[in-house]
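Q: Two folds, back to back.
A: First:
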Amino acid sequence: MHKRRATGGKKKAWRKKRKDDLFGGVFIARSRNFRSNNAHSVALVLSVEKYELGRQPASTKLSSNKTVRRVRVRGGNVKWRALRLDTGNYSWGSEAVTRKTRILDVVYNASNNELVRTQTLVKSAIVQVDAAPFKQWYLQHYGVDIGRKKKAAAAKKDATEQEGEAPAEEVKKSSHVLRKLEKRQADRKLDSHIEEQFGSGRLMACISSRPGQCGRADGYILEGKELEFYMKKLQRKKGKGAGAGA
């Protein structure tokens, strides 16, 4: 609590010097170490204040066995400590659409390669997510089945005809829906890199939430210059690995 002056203004609360702030009867500033007379560094072991408290890192792992712990923190507030996660809400910025999808792999981390090896989910980690929910939305919104190879589709059609099976009938659309899809397709733009990724069924994304603080691994799909940057990084990393193997 703040004490107040006679005028009503706030003034600093007086705090009693604790025993651990005294060394040889002389008050020492609350630094973690100081130098004695013979110039040796002497470490002080001070009692930790509540506001100085640190906890163990969450080290959230990529696992299907979802585990989130509730942590009571200062002021009676709550944090959610994710220990294991494999799903998150990912946003596709250019299309203004968000879908819940599976996280398949951790592919890059700017801070430490060890976090990639151990499949640790942290903020700003580059991951691969399942493209299926976005593919379904794209088909419904634009009427275009992206990531489907034309040759493979034609081969499949020939195989069904040879076996004598009737090909699956397309759902009939009303003229109103067809007009709507046509109008949407006029403004449709799709990055070639993203189209390639849809073919493999995996999209590169960045985690923007803090799994150890809020218990979620949400993020956004990489696009444009940012996607190109991380693709180059991964190519370089693969090249180094191949060189080391040889």
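A: Second:
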Amino acid sequence: MGEEGQVISCHTLDAWNQQLEKGNNSDKLIVVDFTASWCGPCRFISPFLAELAKKLPSVTFLKVDVDELQSVAKDWAVEAMPTFMFLKAGKIVDKVVGAKKDDLQTTIAKHMNTA
């Protein structure tokens, strides 16, 4: 799997846990996009996220469909889509709710610099 430079969709609990574990064992910033197929703003922000993933290979971008992995969305207290969670070494370091390109970019930049 060529994962650098792209958004990785987690369709199963196993895939999700595998990605999380990988992230916990590295210093890489992980951006998780909690999304839904029926969510307009999610579709709007998706190409932007793909662009960021291409530009920032040092950041891991994951995508979770809340309808596919409801337990994960519940565990992470996701109430609105899209919600972006920012993880570092297994801990949530930040969160952006909504399709806010500027906030997303600013938050990624902020946490990339605190490696």
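Q: And?
A: Residues 44 and 107 are 19 Å apart (CA to CA).
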